Amino acid sequence: MNTKRILTLLLLTMVGFSSWVSAQYWGQRVLEKGFEHTEFFFAPNHLMPYGIGSFKGTTAGLLDDPLQEIIVNPSRLGLDSTHDAWLYTDFRGAKNITEENNWIVPAYTYLDSRYAPVSSMYLPYPRLYLETRRELEPVFSGGAIFRPLPETAPSLYAAATYQYILQDAKYYSVPQNIYRTAAGYDFNGKSVAASEAMPIIDKYSGKDNMRQAGHFASVYVRYGVPGGLDLGATLSRAMFHRDGSYGSQNYWDYTGNSTSLWSNMEARAQSYTAWDLGGGVTYHFNEHVSFGVTAGNLWGDAVQALHTTDSSHYLYKSTTSDSYYNRSGNGLYQWNHQGNTSYYGADILAHTSPAMTMNFYYRHQKSAADIGLASGVLDTSFSTYSNTYNEQPYSSMSRSILSDTRSGGGTQNITTDRLMGSLRWQIDDRVALAIGAQLEWYTMEIATSESVVMASRYEYLYSGENYNWRSAQNESKDLRWTFTSKRSSLQIPVFLTLRASKLLQFMIGINRDMTSWRIEEVTLALFRFRYEDQNGTVTQKTNFGERYTVPTENVSDVRTTFLAGIAVSPSEKLNLRLLMVPNFREGFDGQELDQLQLWLGLTVTP
Fold first, then answer.
1. What is the pLDDT of residue 103?
2. Where are the beta strands (DSSP E) in 93-150?
């Protein structure tokens, strides 16, 4: 790394530190930005034996696997005629997620007007700030397919799958919350009168944890009706919960003439539950061509709560000076999403030759969720400071209060269309090739409206010179937020299987993903009234609006994912498979290997 890069990193780190030091309040930011979205919320969930890395969305219908087939249509559930049961389980290594917080978050640093012609400076958080955490992956996955009545009803099949998520990690914040506190600063991010005399030394650390647990279970049934008709049905249940907290109670230097205590805590909890009921029908025109349709409906809810507390106290006395500081801040935020997802699709399976199979399917999915929002923030602070210099006494006092109350709601609509075509070719007894192409169009639209009542007061008095300052602000408004994200992608997966012997088999996979996004965001603030008093200069306005439009963001990404696998079959009834996907990240000197993700799968056919 050269000297220029080092200096750039140091500069960005200093800017980022100055942004994090001060407390911050964003009056025009909406609550919904603080809700944590997860990819399986209000979406069907399936056990995918080959769904590692970016292959998760492309292996259904591509590879000849019983669990992959029922993702396309539950009426495809089945086994070959030589087996009455099939069991599967896998153990997965987690993948790290590195998130770059590249949004602009306003931070204001106060400058004295005697030394600069402005009263504040705008400082965005640097794009350098990264947050790394583990991607949610099941610690256990298992599935079973069997014929419950092989003699009396050989065309009746049943299946069950279960996935268990359990992950403990460090707490991570929701970065788009409307308020963040900091010791020694008021809601404006201004240092209080006594803050310079506060040496913060951690003597006791508190909590820093985030636990996430989930249960995902599905049952399937399929029955073959005479005349070439297969009927299938599925029922799934999803339950997920995450909760964690971060904070500490820190005792500062304690001597005979000072007392201080600081307690700061943030706690967040989120729960998601859903039911999914679906079915499918497949008609076999002949032994070579079949056509199927599938449909289903999912319903559930996701709730989230966030609680922040900040309590600080400081008292210092000596023969020449004394300081007092007291601060109390509380915030409670609540989100409630109640959603319904409907989906339907069609598929065609054609055996064009004994060695070649073509598979096509289309899936349309539409999700609609009603959003409920509520929050309350109350922050108060009071501080005094006095000092004697050259027998001249000086004193200062500051106090502030912030109250922000919100309630509202909105809707979230997500539409996904997926079109997949694949070819399976058994080239010879040793080599098999599977290649596909998948097009996907995704649109998410969120619209919320929340009523806001905000009041704030700030006062600073200084006896040495006329540096007194008073400010006040009252607002009553509605924040209307619209967010639209559109994504289109083309993925081309290729799998090559090489059988070295009856005991050993190798697999090589590659997935080319070409994706583009378009993101639009607008916030409209409709004010019933706004009152501002800046040291005696009063401004009042009623019934007006302000629009905040984020520049439209167009992003494209092309990436290639490589997969390597090895399968060992010590007997005809047992198969062990190891899948490996290397994950690369962009470093200062190009691509660097960040992690090697491993999956170990076991298949038993008793």
1. 37
2. 96-100, 108-110, 120-122, 130-134, 140-146
